[in-house]
Model the fold of this input.
Amino acid sequence: MADKIYKFDKSFEMFRKAVNVIPGGIYGSKSPNFAVPGSFPYFITHGKGCYIYDVDGNEYIDFLCGFGTNLLGYGYEPVNKKVAERMAKGEIFNTASPEFVELAEMLVKRIDSMDWALYGKNGTDVTTFAVTLARIETDKKKVVMAKGAYHGTAPWAAPSEWTILDEKKNNLYFNYNDIEGLKKLFEKHRGEIAAIILTPYHHPAFGDSIMPSKDFYPAVEALCKDEGALFIMDDIRCNFRLHPNGSHKYFGAHPDLICMGKSLGNGHPVSVVMGTKDHYKAATDVYATGTFWFQAGALVAAMESLKEFERLKTVDKMMKTGKMLQDGLASCAKDEGLDVVISGAPTIPFMSFKGDKDLYYNQIFCSETTKRGVYLHPHHNWFLSAAHTEKDIDKALGVARIAFKAVRQAMGL
Amino acid sequence: MELADLSPEGQKILSHVKANVVLNLLEAVAEYDPEAKKLLAGKKYSIQIMVAGGPKVFVEAKDGKLTFHKGRRFMPSLGLYFPKPIELNKMFSGKKAFVFPLIGGFKFAMALKNFKALMARLQYYMSGAPEVKDNHKAFLAKMLTCATAFGISEVANHDPYVAPNIEHMSDGVVEVFVRSDESIAAHIVKQDDRLYTHKGRSQERSNSRLIFKDVKTAIAVLTGKVNATLAMAMTDIVSEGNRAIIKEVFPVLDRLNMYMSVK
Done:
């Protein structure tokens, strides 16, 4: 695999067709421009385990996992079989299906300190619900978030800037882990803050991940208590990759609301906002629905995935392979005389080159690995799945060695 | 959109774009065109352009060269005062405009005649005539790159529509150049909530690079004949480095295209 450089002729051909009928060809985070055009596939046909296959027939060990969704691996039979059975009986009805309750009970039992659950389809559905709930309950508008954090595509959170969409005017930003800055923000806007929304740790696009300092969550919780603001944990990306009972448990945090999605259904579309009983009433006051939010198959997928996460002890497994990847990359880089920054949890790692804040070398490194069958994103954190084996990590590191040599050459070393 | 349909605010923004882009292009023509060089030989003068509530820029002819500058010049040979931004926009669109000439010295007549002759040379290169397209491809690409880069700064610095993008953009340098001919280059510096465009590649390491594969691609994309998204996906344009900065430049470019399409 390491000697073959992939070509993307069919991806190119399909993209030419796409731009004629789809704005931007492929939009958002799946756009070719979010990675490195020419070095990454644009269209994927299928996946199995931790492997994906593109329209040109190229095979990759995938470290993006469909942006985190496929925690158990692609085409995971025990989940898909149950979903298929449910689909055969119909999925969308005039009202909820029994799975609607069963999953909520399972989640309440599983996710630490949470008492209720409300479903959506995507992360944006539930982060927007959580923020709306906080505003209604507190009768305040402002929402605090870390600079560079991603909380969805709704106008209040979207990364794009438009004058006419002024929902962001109620957002207040602070530098992650800057407790003093956060205190000043709360002081300045006393009586105005409805909520703080935080990812379990800071994992911005285009940058290294940052873990919370030991004083961070106690400070956040004290400020929220003092202000009467809600603490929302946006666990969409990390969920079930840090702790089986929720990422807040991993960090010892005590949020009022938790948003989860991505891996929850192992690739099937389901997200959830959960909350403590104190916020149950407000949750009933927010009118929430979506045509497909009650889709039984996705709820089944979540239930079956939760069972498998527990049975396979997926967090432990991924922590082990993730650590192997992180250590291996650091070691391979060192062998080439390169200084890399390994950040994030082993299950959701990221790597950059020291001093390369614009990610020029990440773009070279990830292009070189991906063209050789190891899909690593240059601008977005990576994901381990439970399907990655030690053998897969070894193969990936073999390709990484070649990519490090290319970086070294580009640096003129 | 017709020029007359543009709001007063839009006229003001367009006047900044036109004054800066056109006169920068004139400088480029003076440097490239043999006819222009002949016209400038032995000439020494300056022309100040002032727009009420709009741009203040000037050109200076000296030592066989014509240079463009922002701001005011002390005692120009000739001043051209436009009482409203729309008047400058009319003039640079080849329409009849209301302008007050402010005579600054005995060279004013020569300066005006020479300036008009140089503008005619610029018109020739911008005419889209087949002979220009066939024989001056690289220069055409250079003009388009220059016009785009300078236009971006003007829109960014004056159009409130893109203010959130500029506010959101981190400080740094974005380079735009053609891989096969790096003399076709410009770089934009974001600093203190403003953009500043300079010709050529950056002396310091840029934070981001937008690279056209070749002259043909640059012309096709910058004249709107090829979809830029497609060109990037096909690697005819390559984006390197800090994507977050580039991402905020694209809405400004879209806005520039809107202004440039005003007839």
